[in-house]
Amino acid sequence: MTSFLNPVRAGQVRYNAAHARARNVIERQYGVWKKRFSCIDTPFRCSLETAQTVIVATAVLHNLALSLGDYEDEDSLPLQQDETMVNHSQEHGGIAKRNAIVANFFN
Q1: What does the pLDDT read at residue 81?
Q2: Are 2 and 86 in contact (CB under 8 A)?
Q3: Vertex 73: Cα angle to 72 and 77 (nearest 5)
Q4: List of residues 6+ apart from 98 with CB closer than 8 A
Q5: How many beta carbons lie within 10 A of that of residue 29, not counting itself?
Q6: Residue 85 carries which DSSP code?
Q7: Is the keyword Metal-binding in the record (predicted)?
Q8: C-alpha span between 105 and 16 (Å, rounded)
Q9: What gap in Å lies between CA 68 and CA 25, rounded to an integer?
Q10: What is the predicted pLDDT for the residue at 30?
Q11: pTM for the structure as a whole
Q12: Can you tell me the distance from the alpha carbon of 97 to that of 18, in angstroms, rounded to the nearest whole number?
């Protein structure tokens, strides 16, 4: 989902704000994950199947570390700049879904 390029309704403005907050949390988590596992910080030079296995393995190891109390210091990570205002080419189905989300949750 992308944000609205030029929000004109209150629901669209609220959606954009929620979208930006969620994206920031996700981007920070990616930063933590990449800091913990440097192998996922660079492009993979392997088959798609191997890359998927590596991603799943690092996710499992990350969650295991968290469950054992091994937390990364998130405060040392730089804040990600919000780039959600970029409105890429979209399919009509995606626009309809986004509009339905706004109608159901942000109006």
Answers
A1: 52
A2: yes
A3: 110
A4: 1, 2, 15
A5: 14
A6: T
A7: yes
A8: 12
A9: 22
A10: 87
A11: 0.63
A12: 16
- Mark 39-65 as b/e (b = at least 16 C-beta within 10 Å): ebeeeeeeeeeeeeeeeeebeeebeee
Residues of the chain with pLDDT under 50: 76-77, 82, 84-86
Place of tokens 């989300």: 101
DSSP per-residue string spanning 38-66: GGGSS---S-HHHHHHHHHHHHHHHHHHH
Coil vs helix vs strand at 82: coil
Sequence-ordered list of residues with C-beta below 8 angstroms from that of 67, at least 6 positions apart, any chain? none
Task: Give the Å distances, CA to CA, from 81 to 41, 64, 88.
Answer: 18, 29, 18
- The DSSP call for residue 5 is S
